[in-house]
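Notes, p. 3: input format for complexes.
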Amino acid sequence: MNQDVDVAVVGAGFSGLYLLHRLRQAGLSAIGLETGDDVGGTWYWNRYPGARCDVPTTDYTFSFDPALEDAWTWSEKYATQPEILAYLRFVADRYDLRRSIRFATTVTTATWDDTAQRWQLGTSNGAPVSCRFYVMASGCLSAPKPPEIEGARDFAGPTYLTSRWPHEGVDFTGKRVAVIGTGSSGIQAIPLIAQQASHLTVFQRTPNFSIPALNGPAPAAAVATLERDRAGYRERARWSPVGMPRQRPAEYSWQLSEAERRERFERGWMSGELGGLSTAWADAVSDVDGNALLSEMIRGKIRDTVTDPATAEALCPQDHPFGSKRPCLDTGYYDTYNRPNVKLVDLRREPIATITRSGIRTAKADYDVDAIVFATGFDAMTGAMLAVHPMTGRGGIKLDDAWADGPKTYLGLTVAGFPNLFLVTGPGSPSVLANMAVAIEQHVDWIVDRITGMREAGQTTIEATETAQAGWSRHVADCTGLTLHRLANTWYTGANMRGKARGVMPYTGGLGAYRGICDEVVSRDMLGFRLGDASGNTTCNDGEVVRLQPDVRLLLAEMAKLNLPAMESLGADAARAFTIQARASRPAGRPVGEITDGTLPGAGGPLRYRLYRPATPGPHGVVVYFHAGGWVLGSHDSDDPLCRDLCRRSDMLVVSIDYRHAPEHRFPAAAEDGYAAVRWVAQHAAQIGGRPGPLVVAGYSAGGNVAAVTCQLVRDRGGAEIAGQLLLCPVTDHDFTRPSYSENAQGYHLTKAMMHWFWDLYCSPADRSDPRASPLRGELTGLPPALVVTCEFDPLRDEGIAYADALAAAGVEVSQLQARGHIHTSLAMVDVIITGVGARERMAQAIRRFAERKIR
Ligand code: NA7
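Output follows (856 residues plus NA7):
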């Protein structure tokens, strides 16, 4: 006989317990299926010495019921495993959840029955289960990774897995112990095992960054902040990037002096929180350079603590940026290596050959021990979902096959081909990169709200579409560009498991942003889901929920809140004042070798220019750059961060020109100034410290128009040699009927109305077909090689593409970069739109290549 329920839940940890509570509250019948003998999930199994959570107790706790918060007081800043387990037992009892859980029960098969529209589950204990909805609340770090070391079974003494620790504990007194693995589990266990064992040998493959936990009572200030306004605090946590309300710094590393950085680092180090260091400066975990400064300071702490220099050096992580691999919080970890009974074996120098009857043999020596502890981690994120059972979805598709090249989900919550299956904190959701307690509550609420919503609408099935899932995978991958996670081999990427597909699995775009996206899916008529009823009728609003790059999306959301006036409503002077004021709040560009200002003769009088010189010895190739601003706004210093970035990345001298602006100077003033400036720079390249010879011309937006026109004028009139042209989102034509103008007419910073205004101020309709205004209408043969960069959500996208296509058709060597998910202003927003880095790097490479080819 089947046990029939509305919902079956796998796992009785934080997720499973809250799910059962909410499902019951919603009047749904539910069963929990749990392999362990008790509640607790990963906190039931991970009982190794020193096991603690690395999120403070002020944050790592359920928040769904204020009365529960009143009823429970955590005793320390970071809760121990026994206390967390006691808490989860308390929760289970308080809400009477145990009666809905079948313990000591593993799901052996799960099969979607399309006719019955139900999941049929086989179990290792008790009756099979038939359920309408099947929810995997099986945890991200719950399936142990096999040790994968030869000879592991030959060892004569006891072996222990930190993730399957004996309930009665282990006494290592008088024993020689080996610990293999220095992730969080090893780093927490090692100091305590060292205190007990007669001798401890630690086998380390990869050193990890660890900072002192400074455990003790929860800090009074943190508790006071929470208790002052608990509801407000919890709400802020829900919308924060990591599920904890914390201040984020505005200053970038290069804006701080060395002393200021040191001061911030020491404060972060003594904060006793993982976030203390990652928020030391704005680019601490998002930029390789900003991170390198931080990582080196941590290595300094390790060298200061560990007395044996060789051991200290072996403990210093060198192969990954801080934060790209989960950093650890420890209590006396590095000090432990100063004990006479502790030895570190660096497996990078002497890899393990085999485990023998008496111990561990490396490439250099035999280490005899009485016990081995494997702190070797987990088959994270997907392990528990795939290992529990064969799961078969619609049409016989197996989850293992669907995920053979890495997990694919929609929102990390659902999988195409697997109707009525929900994953709690699945791959593709913030999960392990956020405070799990908050991430779990958000998922559980979303899942239960969908199930109850479907009940009210008379719907019986829900399934993600392939389109939505593929779009989500792209968005998840885009988000990884915001972090440095891709630069480390970790369990985040599957790299810790032999044969596992590689790719950053958690969603790195932040929990608050993610919550907003999940809500948006619902408000857009369940975008990307196919919903069906018992009669087989389906509805589907198909699509991708996020097509913008993640940081562009956040920026636009922030700007929308500011309710800024439409630029074209201001008049030229006020618009100029407004843009100057707006620029003051952007991050200053990074340092270059030297910045100097000067003047050069334009077509109608002197023009100011700003020169960016690389820090490397010259002479450098020269780029003449024309700024953006619709021929109306901006000046030689208005694209400062982009010019610095081009200068640094290309190692070329960038000369940014303050060409004349409309409406004071209408067409063709800007174009003629462009030509005059390029001629002057060509003639004076050596004088300004550049390499004489062919120049590169670059421009952005209206500056792209000036650059393109200048190349045509130089071809026709002579006066300079141009090695190549970089056109970033250029204005190339006065035609407003191309699709990108209507698709992106508003909402993406540069609007159609603004472009109308710019054109009106610059050029009368009668002149607009002149190639000096619309270079697309000019003769295009014989022009220098070009890189044309366009952005997907830009009114100017299609005319940029049209120009590139027309250049190619005219025999010009041209490459295109179509920046997906970006807006007109994205790529110039250096250090704000981090996802533009790849495009900026390509632009710099292109101009460098243009210049170098001409030298050869
Ligand atoms: P981790 O962080 O995956 O650490 C496992 C450690 O075991 C790590 O140092 C591994 O080295 C090492 N390891 C794994 N397999 C081997 C073999 N075959 N030989 C030698 N060393 C090996 O797991 P944890 O349990 O410590 O922590 C998991 C998360 O739980 C943690 O991040 C917190 O979020 C809580 P490697 O780095 O792969 O070279």
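The chain has three domains: 3-143+380-459, 159-374, 567-853.
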